[in-house]
Amino acid sequence: MKTNFYILILIFLCFGLNSQANTYYNYNHHIFPNFIFDNYPEVGKISAPVPNPVNDYANFYYNLPEEQNGEIAIFDFTGIKVKSVQIQAGQGEIQIATYDLKAGVYFACLIVEGKTLDSKKLIKK
């Protein structure tokens, strides 16, 4: 009984509760929150890494405000930036090599003009 309770708490913490269940869009058998119908996230957002957990590479879809370049930076659990890739304004997709990262939990952040607009959890096997 106590184990089941802890499992439910773990599921809640990992997936959270989303009252906007209809905002999910299925793309290539992966479910991304807050995607619009042309397969890109809302402006100022990035997708969850695909696949997640990652092995050698992670793909991200992004949607930057027009005329604003930015970066997708990967931070380790202690907050140290371990990787950064520059991205162009507008919608796009980028593949980031993760083969050189150690196994663990990381955070991929969309940064524009020094401000973090969005972040997603990345798990490295």
* Parts with pLDDT < 50 across at least 5 consecutive residues: 8-37
The number of distinct structural domains comes to: 1
Radius of gyration, whole Å: 15 Å
The tally of helices reads 1
CATH fold annotation: Immunoglobulin-like
- Secondary-structure element order, as H and E? HEEEEEEEEE
Specify the overall morphology. Answer: globular
CATH homologous superfamily - what is it? Immunoglobulins
Helicity range of the residues? 10-25%
How would you describe what is shown here?
This protein is mainly beta and 125 residues long. The chain has a single domain (2-124), classed as Immunoglobulin-like, CATH 2.60.40.10. The protein contains 1 helix and 9 strands. The chain has one helix at residues 2-15; strands at residues 25-27, 30-32, 45-46, 57-64, 70-76, 81-87, 90-97, 104-112, 115-124. The chain has a 4-stranded antiparallel beta sheet, with no helix packed on it. Strands 3-4-7 form a 3-stranded antiparallel beta sheet, with no helix packed on it. A hairpin with a 4-residue loop joins strand 5 (70-76) and strand 6 (81-87). The longest helix has 14 residues, at 2-15.
